[in-house]
């Protein structure tokens, strides 16, 4: 089976035609690569079609079976209340921190002066708290220093952080080499020192299920009483161009005539 077309172009000029085997190797969840295979075992009768059926791997910003429309903003459905944002915990930031871990990006917590690292992740949309902070460092000899990473604007079940120890140095059990320190990340219900991580269950729905996506323009057309939010779960008014915020003024003005 070949790939579909859009406007007489394979994958609409906005994607690459691949077999199911190839598509599985490009699997992602919330933007992070995940390990999935399909059709790699030629003796597996359940995946006989891995190299026979093809589909489109769409370019960033495009979607649909033929990559024929522009994606709209995804967000949490504000009408659901029994869901939770992702919370992960980092521990064992041991010994001496020469500069910030490149993935964790834990603000200004370091012991020694160092050149500002160039590969620190942008922490916008992430809240980081340190409940046991006793000094200006996230490092500790006994591993009891914890950092709680709360994903306030990234929805769904977020993959565990891939922490880098590139700038971490174990000053007690090694020869003080960078990269000898340790970082451990706890996610999806794993616990450490009485704190429990939390798998995110918020939705990642186009236009927050409060509008329709204009696939030609990639713009949300919100239902009445709904407008753009700040992107957080049950968030306030903002400029993300989604449909996650209820326009209280408009809603209130019609409240008296609604059942």
Task: Provide the descriptors you would attach to this structure in a database record.
259 residues; mainly beta; four-stranded antiparallel beta sheet; two-stranded antiparallel ribbon; 2 helices; 22 strands; flat; disordered C terminus
How do you describe this structure in short?
This protein has 2 helices and 22 strands.
Shape: flat
* Radius of gyration computed on alpha carbons: 23 Å
- Sheet with the most strands: spatial strand order: 12-13-10-15
Number of helices: 2
Instruction: Label the structural class.
Output: mainly beta
Indicate the proportion of strand residues: 15-25%
* Arithmetic mean pLDDT: 79
How many DSSP E strands? 22
The main sheet comes to:
4 strands, antiparallel
Terminal CA distance: 52 Å
Order of helices and strands: EEEHEEEEEEEEEEEEEEEEEEEH
Low-pLDDT stretches are 94-122, 253-259
- Share of residues in helices: under 10%
Account of the protein in words:
The chain has 259 residues and is mainly beta. Among the domains are: 66 residues, no CATH class; 53 residues, no CATH class. It has 2 helices and 22 strands. The strands form 10 sheets. A 4-stranded antiparallel sheet has the order 12-13-10-15, with no helix packed on it. The longest helix is centred in the last third of the chain and has 7 residues. It is flat and about 65 Å long. The C terminus is likely disordered.
Write the layout of secondary structure elements.
Blueprint: E1 5-6, E2 9-10, E3 15-19, H1 20-25, E4 28-29, E5 32-33, E6 54-58, E7 62-63, E8 69-70, E9 74-75, E10 87-91, E11 96-97, E12 126-129, E13 147-151, E14 168-169, E15 184-186, E16 191-192, E17 195-196, E18 205-206, E19 211-214, E20 219-222, E21 226-227, E22 245-246, H2 248-254
């Amino acid at each position: 089976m070949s790939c579909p077309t859009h406007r007489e172009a394979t994958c609409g000029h906005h994607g690459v035609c691949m077999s199911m085997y190839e598509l599985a190797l490009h699997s992602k969840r919330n933007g992070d690569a995940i390990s999935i295979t399909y059709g790699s075992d030629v003796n597996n009768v359940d995946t006989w079609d891995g190299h026979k059926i093809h589909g489109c791997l769409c370019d960033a910003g495009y979607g649909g079976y033929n990559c024929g429309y522009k994606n709209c903003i995804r967000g949490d459905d504000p009408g659901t209340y029994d869901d939770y944002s992702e919370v992960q915990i980092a521990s064992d930031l041991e010994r001496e921190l020469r500069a910030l871990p490149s993935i964790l990006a834990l603000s200004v917590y370091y012991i020694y002066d160092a050149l500002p690292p160039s590969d620190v992740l942008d922490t916008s949309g992430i809240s980081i708290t340190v409940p046991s902070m006793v000094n200006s460092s996230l490092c500790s000899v006994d591993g009891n220093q914890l950092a709680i990473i709360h994903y306030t604007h990234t929805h769904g079940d977020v993959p565990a952080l891939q922490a880098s120890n590139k700038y971490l140095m174990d000053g007690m059990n090694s020869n003080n080499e960078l990269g000898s320190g340790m970082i451990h990340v706890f996610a999806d219900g794993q616990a450490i020192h009485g704190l429990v991580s939390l798998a995110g269950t918020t939705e990642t729905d186009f236009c927050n299920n409060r509008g329709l996506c204009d696939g030609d323009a990639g713009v949300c057309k919100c239902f009445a009483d709904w407008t753009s939010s700040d992107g957080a779960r049950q968030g306030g008014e903002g400029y993300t161009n989604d449909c996650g915020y209820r326009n209280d003024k408009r809603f209130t003005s019609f409240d008296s005539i609604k059942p």
